[in-house]
Amino acid sequence: MAENQAPDVKLPDPVEMSRAMTRIAEQSQRLVTEFLSRQASDGVGAKNPDPMGVGHAFLEMTTRMMADPAKLMKAQMTLWQDYLTLWQRTTQRFFGQEAQPVIAPAKDDRRFKDSAWDENTLFDFIKQSYLLSARWMQSTVNEVDGLDDHTAKKVDFYTRQFVDAMAPSNFVMTNPEVLRTTIETGGENLVKGLEHLLKDLERGKGELRISMTDYDAFQVGKNIAVTPGKVVFQTDLMQLIQYTPTTPEVNKRPLMIVPPWINKYYILDLREKNSFIKWAVDQGHTVFVLSWVNPDEKLAQKGFEDYMFEGPLAALDAIAKITGEKDVNAIGYCLGGTLLASTLAYMAAKKDDRIKSATFFTTMLDFTEAGELSVFIDEEQLTFIENQMAEQGYLDGSKMATTFNMLRANDLIWSFVVNNYLLGKDPFPFDLLYWNSDSTRMPAAMHSFYLRNMYQKNLLAQPGAVSIGGVPIDLRTVKTPSFFLSAREDHIAPWKSTYMGANLFSGPVKFVLAASGHIAGVVNPPAAGKYCYWTNAKLPKTSDDWLKSSEQTPGSWWPEWNKWVSTFSEGKVPARDPEKGGLPALEDAPGSYAKVRIV
User: What residue ranges carry the coiled-coil annotation (predicted)?
Assistant: First the structure.
């Protein structure tokens, strides 16, 4: 708040406050008792108190840091000089003089968007003091010599997690917006925040599951994932959805979409205005989508090859029976793209060419530079994950969700801590965040295979190093025309890594780079008029060379893709009704598999 601006003060009702705190205390005691009881029975932490190996990494970092005291002293002197400058300029502001900031937050840092962070001298000092300390801490650990690459990445990642957690915006007494709200409401915001906290603890059965949206505002098949269609086929692992056409004629060659099973397919069908599936239907495609099951312990032994046989290969057979068309155009998104590429290599070995074009959304095939997710991939952590999966038969969906949220902790963790618990606000209804919270489990056998062979050993990029269905596969044998769509700010599938994978194929490859990240870069309808994308007629060896000679185009890349894929459409045929195909319709889209919710 500005120095001269006094907010209205509302005194709390002592009776209501007492009742609320009594209720909170009773609920807290019950939750803590249940949580401790469950921890004791599970033996959590007894076998390995540091399963992520964080302590070991920081111990090694500290040992090497102390081996060069002169370098550490220099870093501390630099910090001290920055603080002296900050104190001097803050003193100038207290005396009414103008003073330039020593350090400023990044333009996209929303933690300090409240005007008081700039207008109020005290809060400006708190902000700059934090930013200086954060910069010093991260630069100091980044400059430690002698650490292996993986340990250095782990130290950097968890240092950032600590730095983000300690931001002054995350605490009542150092967040001007929270202080102002507390004074204006007589502390009601903090009481509501405590109630939100307890509800989230109760929802997570003792573990904190931060509510990112109003979960009651959405229902799959009612106001989200509503593009009309039918489930026309299913296996243990997926339901095949065929969507109802909206054009009198459709492309002769159907379109098969293989989404990831780390999340639900309907990221491509959130609402009518941003649904890629509906847009593709409107362009005249006969769209089939694989909706993966949310597996439990009964499917623990389902492996990566089972996802291929019971996923895209089974879908190809079903599509042929339904439409009479043997060939398809295919799309794979993220892990679904990794599966699609593996399937193409398997089909190449079997002389099977039913997939005539392949599109890959933010897909990694070469995991040499796997981005920040590689922080979680080492022998110690993989063994811990495998032991957990051995007990349950699957990886709990919440574990995967937490991992992804940590990659963008300020946006996906701490902003909700401030909004829900400090400001006491109800979560805003947001379809994307509802989807993000709709977690899916990973079968033990499949997930172990994926993490070890792709992330840990990078075997998929090596000829014949991975066998599927007893067949050694080689991505270099794939001659299918391919379209690679990557996102420039993608933290999950870094675009330079996806570019390396695109160079593995021997067929023609069109590489397109979208602005924004893993989701927004893909789900960017033309009508929104947002972002831009880059294209290049050539595919040089390095991503940097590709970007240097690329051409930037404003707006969505969707029309660019449709123009490309239409060259493989094989003309037009009358629209196909999913209720009148070669297989009977089983139920309405989005189907029962997509509706299984584990939170």
Answer: none
- Residue 194 zone, left/alpha/beta (φ > 0; ψ -120 to 50; rest): alpha
Rounded to a whole number, what is the largest CA-CA distance in the chain?
Answer: 82
432 φψ region: left (φ > 0), alpha (ψ -120 to 50), beta (else): alpha
Q: Is 532 a catalytic residue?
A: no
Q: Are the beta carbons of 573 and 249 closer than 8 angstroms?
A: yes
Q: List phi, psi (to 5°) of 484.
A: -105, 120
Contact (CB, 8 A) for 494 and 521:
no
The C-alpha angle with vertex 381 and arms to 377 and 384, in degrees rounded to 5, equals 140
397-448 tens-digit pLDDT: 888 778 878 878 888 888 999 999 999 999 999 999 999 999 899 999 999 9
**Residue 483 β-bridge partners:** 359, 510
Residues 21, 25, 27, 32, Cα dihedral to 10°: 150
CB 480 within 8 A of CB 337: no
**Closest by CA position to 12, among listed 167, 156, 246, 192:** 192
CA–CA separation, 353 vs 16, rounded Å? Answer: 71
Nearest to 322 by CA among 236, 225, 226, 241: 241
pTM of the full structure: 0.87
| Gap between the Cα atoms of 164 and 410, Å rounded | 7
**Mean pLDDT, the chain, whole residue set:** 89
DSSP 43: T
Separation between Cα atoms, residue 13 and residue 187, nearest integer Å: 10
| Cα–Cα distance for residue pair 259/438, rounded to 1 Å | 15
C-alpha 441, offset from chain centre: 15
The residue type found at 125 is: F
Using only C-alpha atoms, the chain has a radius of gyration, in whole angstroms, of 27
Options 280, 334, 445, 487, the catalytic residue = 334
552: Cα separation from own chain's centroid? 26
Is-contact 340 330, C-beta < 8 A? yes
